[in-house]
Amino acid sequence: MSISIYMLLLATKVWWGKKRSSASASASASALLNLASRSTNWTMSLGWWTLFAAGFLFFHGFAATETAPNYSFMHNAMSAPTLSYYDYIIVGGGTAGCPLAATLSQNATVLLLERGGSPYGNPNITKMTSFGSALSDLSRSSPSQRFISEDGVINARARVLGGGSCLNAGFYTRASTEYVKQAGWDGGLVNESYQWVEKLVAFEPPLGQWQSAVRDGLLEAGVLPFNGFSYDHIYGTKVGGTIFDQQGNRHTAADLLEYANPSGLTVYLHASVHKILFARKERKMPKARGVVFRDAKGAKHKAYLKKGLKNEIIISAGALGSPQLMMLSGVGPAQHLMSHNIRVVLDQPLVGQGMSDNPMNAVFIPSPIPVDVSLIQVVGITHFGSYIEAAGGENFAGGASSPSPRDYGMFSPEAIEETAFRGGFILEKVTGPISTGHLELRTRNPNENPSVTFNYFKDSRDLQRCVQGIQTIEKIVKSKAFAKFRYEFLSWAMLLNMTANAPLNLLPKHYNPSMPLEVFCKDTVMTIWHYHGGCQVGKVVDPDYRVVGVDSLRVIDGSTFNHSPGTNPQATVMMLGRYMGVKILRERVAN
């Protein structure tokens, strides 16, 4: 395997840590130049991706509030009764499901079913220094479940109360006003719902030297104007919010359950929902009436809706989980369902369609000076359809007990000094995207990943946005503001070559410095975990998120999005949970 891949894999120095004596600047420069000039072939393995993803995902944040709140309504599903009744049953305690449940509990009885565990009290989640342990954990109890799309891009989905807000970069920024208008949302209620979320989980980040250099480099690159600190989506460069507080503790969507009425809410953890139950006799349309779920020991439980025209089941299982559960319950493309011996409740061919994942491409920049640890804090919102973000730092989890890359035999006999592995990433994310794919079942087991194809860069407009994004990153790296964080002897071509030779995905490699950036974009595409679609508004659900053709069933989460909102979607997904909870309660008391 090429040593050049370790420039990208190990530059973060994340959880392998273990400081060693520093080398001289000349020795470091020699090592870097040697690495940058290499372009040997390698064989991809999931193990190498785990190491890279752990490093990169640290930049994208992984910690949680240290002190567990006293949630009297939260229980292990093994304590659930065999049969129970509620006004609302929410499947999925994620980024949308938690604020939705907290809101509905104010005036109704609510059951929230989460297939994962609690984010509280687990040091692999709550401690930033232990994040790598959680990301590399492939067990069934891990808060992160790996999947690989048919495109060959390695990805992850959340399996924990709080959902993706427990695994992401922590960046908090709202959707644009145009997005809100196109969605047909009530602007006033949207703002109130954002503010409701922000009171508990959003903060202004402290800006260090690396992020400041990226900010000023963006301005030199022409991503203007500078809009200061703002949660709003504004063209130009800004400092966004974060769900990390000043002590570095993560505040997730699970924290929004603090708003809940304890007497109105029941949360079951490790509760895997296998199907939605429908009533069909003497009805023009099937009516959702209950769910079947299993606890960690496999025991079956059933929960039904109480009698009442306003009572509903709401799926908030995410962009993979929601269309998957719809199909497992008999709502989806009839031929596909019958091929899995699933009884068809409603032939809905658009379930699982419109799957999109915003492609991300990153460049690692080795630094001659130490880089302060930072998550995503600054963003450049361009007019050409690309968002520029950055993360940096070294030796995040250093410690005597931390394993070193050398401990795993990752290096050739050549001595490569630690100063060759400090720096940070600058990345670009394509807005939209325009390219779409589809999702299908692999098996009837809801705990197994479905098959998903995103068709990255299928539409040439997405590819051109990536090219312009990479060109903007080049301007930042070459800017005066960024000068102290780059080695003069490492050309832009060398930096691209180091990235292109890293095992970032399972795709075959073609890129070399003589090739156009389009090839670089295709070869180095990664996920930024902003995938969406599968139960889209106007196709599967109506503007009020009711499933078309079925009574008493809604889908409220990112699977309903036609495009990803804002630069990073979590703020809007949390807002949507609150927003729809308020609307549903208003409908409940009307008439």
Q: Give the radius of gyration.
A: 24 Å
The percent range for helix content is 25-40%
Q: State the total count of DSSP E strands.
A: 26
Mean pLDDT: 86
How many helices?
15
- Strand order, main sheet: write it out: 8-9-20-21-22-19-25
Shape: globular
Based on secondary structure, the structural category is alpha/beta
Strand content: 15-25%
* Poorly predicted ranges: 1-26, 38-65, 395-416
**How far apart are the termini?**
68 Å
Biggest beta sheet summary = 7 strands, mixed
Describe this structure in words.
The protein has 591 residues and is α/β, with parallel strands linked by helices. Helices cover 26% and strands 19% of the residues. It is built from 15 helices and 26 strands. The strands form 7 sheets. Strands 8-9-20-21-22-19-25 form a 7-stranded mixed sheet. Strands 1-11-4-3-15-26 form a 6-stranded parallel sheet. Helix 4 (97-104) runs parallel beside helix 15, helix 8 (187-201) crosses helix 15 (570-589) and helix 12 crosses helix 14 (517-523). The protein is globular, with a radius of gyration of 24 Å. Its cofactor is FAD. Keywords: FAD, Flavoprotein, Membrane, Signal, Transmembrane, Transmembrane helix. Residues 318-332 form the Glucose-methanol-choline oxidoreductase N-terminal domain.
